[in-house]
Amino acid sequence: MEYFLQFGVNALSLGGVYAMLAIGIALIYSVMGFLNIAHGDLLTLCGYAMFFCIGFGLPWPLVIIIGILVAGLASVLMEQVAFKPLRSASFDTLLLTSFALSAAIHVVLQISISARPKPVPLPSFLTGSYNIGDIVIGTGQTLSIIVAVTSMLGLTYFLRRTTMGLAMQAAAQDFDTTRLMGIQANRVISTAFFIAGILAGLAGVLIIAQRGSVDPLMAMNPLIKGLIAAIIGGTGSLYGPVLGGIILGVLETIFQTVLPGEALLFRDPLVLSLLVIFLLLAPNGITGTRVERSR
Amino acid sequence: MRSAPLLQLDDIVVRYGAIAAVKGVSCRVEAGEIIVLLGANGAGKSSLLRAILGLTPIDAGRVQFQGRDVTGWRTEALVKLGLTLTPEGRNVFQSLTVTENLRLGGATMPREQSAETMERMFQQFPILRERSDQLAGTLSGGEQQMLAIARSLMSSPKLLVLDEPSLGLAPVIIEEVFALISRLRDAGTTILLVEQNVAQSLTIADRAYLLELGSIAREGTAASFRADLNLHEIYLGGGD
């Protein structure tokens, strides 16, 4: 029983973080029609923002809020600078642009700050642990689950109940017709990037709290996990990426538990191999909904 | 002095790369009219409509709406001025409910006004009230067309452009759609209709334009078009 609880907390906290990244990737994909490879770098930018804020001696709630906001605004800025001029370009062009943007962010951070990790000491309640009976549960993990669930509920409300949320779903189905409703295309796109960025920032705070540091290339692993979660889940709905994230979290936790110490290095390759097999069987993801789109 | 037409097009040219889909089209729509734009597939009708609505760039020419030059305006801004299009193939938002589709149609209006307009739409289209919580994708073709038109009407347009509203519908439903278009005009909405359903659209229209290979081949009153019995065969290659 205790074992399962421990397992569940581990799997869900990991899955929740992946899901937050995956939702952002899926949101951009469904509105814009491309996978934003630079999405992961929002985590990194969130991390550096927090690093500098701590350096300025700001109180930690402010540090965290600024970190999350920087990720949201950086996401909007990315769209304005790099993707907006290419609004009518093909999937490949946008995908390559996002690769280039990601590489540019890495280099700029390496040159202007450092290639080495910088410490981001977040308060101990984010990294500590507590006991329920015999089991030890990390506060960071608990928080990951709470944040993931809250942000998903918030996003569901936004998408189902607000005009902007409905417009975003409409734009994912048919952008031209959405504009014929008098809805500002630019505003829908900026909002999508902002939400995706905020989710990446939230995931960033949780990931960085565990690592305790930030470096220019730290987002690679989380980005790949987010992409995988979005792909296995399918990008057609909100549930797809969430399900994808949880499945990924469960798989990783299983391998983490059952693999003997010296084989732990094979955790990621094993998970990725399962993904390849899965995609051969269900190329459209679990939810099977590919958004038919026209732009 | 005569007041300006509701919509006036002067020498509109639309190119896709080297190919000109619309080659210098001029036409006008007066307030209160039903104008039908006829033409075979590939005559440039859809390109012309998309260009008027700002969904495709205009390469040359001028669009005036209520005497105001709106060439190159963004689609969203044109909708606010009172010009909108119900696209071909209906294009309702399949995974949203009927109510949500209508709500988006009224997105530019204050909340209360939008709710009032929606109530009027439900009175006008009782079937939509019955289906209000259903996903639009589950409606029949005719119901989807009604929804698409009602959604366009939510922005209270002065000029409603309808792109092939009868496409793919059963004859009985087509009758209903044409009756609806006449009612809309009687209620004060000006209509620019694009149709391949020549005979039926000419019976409700005031004037007509025939588009051929990107140019206006003929224009005149609907009656004069109807009088030309062979028109259908001559210009459209016969058959519906």
Order of helices and strands of chain A: HHHHEHEEHHHHEHHH
Return the average pLDDT of chain A rounded to an integer.
Answer: 89
Strand tally of chain B: 10
> Any idea what the radius of gyration of chain B is?
18 Å
Give the oligomeric state: heterodimer
Chain-averaged pLDDT of chain B: 90
Major sheet of chain B: 6 strands, mixed
Task: Count every helix of chain B, treating DSSP H or I runs of 4 or more residues as helices.
Answer: 10
Shape of chain A: globular
Explain what the structure shows.
Chain A has a single domain (2-281), classed as ABC transporter involved in vitamin B12 uptake, BtuC (Orthogonal Bundle), CATH 1.10.3470.10. With 295 residues, chain A is mainly alpha-helical. Chain A has helices at residues 2-32, 41-55, 60-83, 91-112, 124-127, 139-161, 163-173, 175-179, 185-211, 220-233, 239-258, 267-281; strands spanning 118-119, 129-132, 135-138, 213-214. Chain A contains twelve helices and four strands. The radius of gyration of chain A is 19 Å and the shape is globular. Helix content of chain A is 72%, strand content 4%. In chain A, the strands form two sheets. In chain A, strands 1-4 form a two-stranded antiparallel sheet. Chain A has a two-stranded antiparallel ribbon with strand order 2-3. Chain A starts with a helix and ends in a 14-residue tail after the last helix. In chain A, helix 2 crosses helix 3, helix 3 (60-83) packs across helix 9 (185-211) and helix 10 crosses helix 11. Chain B is of the alpha/beta class and 240 residues long. Chain B has a domain at 7-91 and 157-236: P-loop containing nucleotide triphosphate hydrolases (Rossmann fold, 3-Layer(aba) Sandwich), CATH 3.40.50. Helix content of chain B is 38%, strand content 25%. Chain B has helices spanning 45-52, 75-81, 98-105, 111-124, 126-130, 141-153, 171-186, 198-204, 222-227, 231-236, and strands at residues 7-16, 19-29, 34-38, 60-65, 68-69, 83-86, 159-163, 190-194, 207-212, 215-221. A six-stranded mixed beta sheet of chain B has the order 6-7-8-3-9-10, sandwiched between helices. The model of chain B has no long low-confidence stretch (mean pLDDT 90). The chains are: A mainly alpha (295), B alpha/beta (240). Chain A binds chain B through residues 163, 166-167, 169-170, 173-174, 176-185, and chain B through 53, 55, 74-76, 79-80, 84-85, 87, 91, 93-96, 100, 103-105, 107-108, 151-152, 154-155.
